[in-house]
Design a protein that fits this description.
261 residues, alpha+beta, Outer membrane lipoprotein wza fold like, five-stranded mixed beta sheet, three-stranded antiparallel beta sheet, 6 helices, 12 strands
Length: 261
């Protein structure tokens, strides 16, 4: 009788083990010899692997900074320049609300707070500078700033074009498109030697010589340079236009063919 009861107990334990074994494995639990359940994280991957408290992955910086070794800022914030117009609003002191223009020296004159240098600051840094200027003058100054007017990106086209001047860079524009926007080439242009000036720093300007004539004739539009803010395109005169004022028009047309230029 005792042996029968013992066999029944063993069968019950085996049945319980078969039923609970898969569930325990699915939940990652291991039962020790005391019957205590421990959670194993050896099969986990991601932020919570190997630790008792999972941590979210670092989403990156809020200001859009990238790896400086791979190009620095992906989406750089706009920084104030001279002639920009900014508006300041105080939450608890509306009598100090004001609209300011960044002066040529990079400063603004704050009402009752004096001069503050703001050129080169983004709006968040400008807000912090204003709050610092009014600290001690106003109790807990809370400032909201907004950019009302600013220098639009531009490029300049000069030389032998129909309408030389300064143009806003509203969208992606190539050198050939910029020349057309500026009225196209004149008959006196030497479009085989168009010069692109691009400022690299305050004291360094990069110069590129582009054969616009060959590019358009051959249809090699992949060679067309995309303009950047501040670029200047210069189309020089051809040889005929340089000597035309010293020769009569019939003699020039007789001995010179403008197509070769």
């Amino acid at each position: 009788m005792m042996r029968l009861l013992t066999n029944v107990r063993i069968a019950a334990v085996l049945l319980w083990a078969l039923e609970c074994g898969p569930a325990a494995s699915a939940q990652g639990e291991i039962t020790d010899w005391r019957g205590n359940a421990n959670t194993s994280r050896s099969g986990l991957t991601g932020a919570g692997a190997g630790s008792s408290s999972p941590k979210a992955a670092n989403p990156g910086r809020a200001d859009g900074l990238g790896n400086p070794l791979l190009g620095g800022e992906r989406h750089p914030l706009y920084r104030l320049q001279t002639s920009d117009v900014v508006e300041i609003s105080f939450t608890v002191a509306p009598e100090f609300n004001q609209t300011l223009t960044v002066q040529p020296d990079g400063y603004v004159m704050l009402k009752d707070a004096g001069m503050v240098e703001v050129a080169g600051l983004n709006l968040s840094e400008f807000s912090a500078a204003v709050e610092k200027a009014y600290t001690g003058y106003l109790h807990d100054p809370q400032v909201a700033v907004s950019l009302k007017d600013f220098e639009r990106p531009y490029y300049i086209v000069g030389g032998e074009v129909g309408r030389p001047g300064k143009y806003e860079l509203r969208s992606d524009t190539t050198l050939a498109e910029a020349v057309q926007i500026a009225g196209g080439l004149t008959p006196q242009s030497k479009h085989s030697q168009v010069v692109l000036f691009r400022r690299v720093s305050q004291s360094l300007v990069e110069t590129r010589l582009l054969n616009l004539k060959r590019m358009l004739k051959k249809g090699h539009l992949q060679e067309d340079e995309h303009l950047q803010p501040g670029d200047m395109v210069f189309v020089p005169q051809n040889a005929i236009s340089k000597i035309a004022r010293y020769l009569s028009r019939p003699s020039v047309s007789m001995y010179m063919n403008s197509a070769q230029f």
